[in-house]
Hints:
The structure holds two protein chains of two kinds.
Chain A lengths: L6 H4 L3 H11 L5 H10 L10 H27 L1 H17 L48 H10 L3 H19 L3 H14 L6 H14 L3 H14 L6 H8 L2
Chain B lengths: L13 H4 L4 H26 L4 H17 L9 H26 L4 H8 L7 H14 L3 H12 L4 H8 L3 H31 L1
Amino acid sequence: MREPSRLRDETSSALERALLDAGTSYRSPASARAKTLGALGLAGSATILAGATQAAPLSAFAKVTWTKLLATISVVGVAAAVPVGYYAWHRHAGAGHAAPVHAPVVALAQAAEPAVPEEAPAGPAVAAPALEPAPAPTLAPTAGSLTHRAEAGPSTVTLAGELSSIDGARAMLARGDGEGALARLDAYSRGYPRGRLELEAEVLRIDALDQSGRTNLARERAEAFLRRHPRSVLAARVRAHLGD
Amino acid sequence: MTTAAVYEAPPLDRGLSMPRDPARDREVRLRRLVDGHIDFVARVLRNSGTPQADVDDEVQRTFIVAARRLDDVRIGAEKSFLFRIALNLAAHARRTMARRREVSADQAPEQIERFATPEALTDQKRMRELLDRVLDKMEEPLRATFVLHEFEEMSTSEIAELLGIPRGTVASRLRRARIEFRERVGAIEALGKRERET
């Protein structure tokens, strides 16, 4: 069977090409990667947020504006969008623009057909209550909290701080400084009472307690962690600590 | 005559004989999953109809769902696994968006004047909006095939494997999807041309 070529390679329509480029060029921003790693408890290098922190205010603005655009344009549909779009296109075309990027924002002639999903997956909400004394952290955000955080603005700034604290504790632990790591983790819990990386912090705390000779306490906390978060992404790591 | 220095090479099975840390392995796999596929997931979500404002959250959600089931995913099948999750989440996001449209219908006429003027949109955003409109009209199976072939540049064999359908079905869906795409874009161009002539 002959492999079909890409439409992009064979089309002579500037508008088709521009639309195909729009579909191909989409990239996930650095902030999305940072948030994803944070939600998974994979608090890596703090540098992953270097770009995200700066980009947050702009993307937040764009998000609000674009949401409104989509909602409003979609509702009004053909009646409102076509004249506006064609006015723009007509104006650009009349001015001799050959570039396809001046095509209109236009709803197609038919009303949008509602998509029929095959299967709605189970929501990823994993509410993760904290061990004492750390208060209520969340590893995997609920649908509500995801939306809330998106609307709340540049939360990546806070996340960058959290990552930095966790990375600091991890580095101390790697150097064999269990006491220093514990102090750093305690400071983290005080500084971010509802921190998104609290579960990661708790796992490091278990390691740090173990390293500093408080093995009974480490085991106690590890068992408590597994009772509270048996399905956490980090549970396997804690189980390995207990030798399960 | 000089005597060669004695060099004691590390054993070949050194790495293999070290005890494995399953938790660490899992973390490494998860991180690779994110790093290797986050753009793919974002594009699939966006091109499958997830509103721009929701894409980042849905990307996050896709990987959280994947992390929960990671142990069930065989090595090498991660992309297919992520694609299915993303496709389902996109369908869910579209439904939510449809409900939002119904709720906000009363406010729309006022807002459109404020936000939808050509001057308020960059060309890139206008193209994205137009593409959304074109793709939204496609049936889901056609859209998924079109997205994977035209945007992800996957071969028909790869798409067949990913979707679990025969290669001939992929080719057939792709043909139909391309016809629909070209018809709709052609209609827009024709309308614009008529507009310019009058």
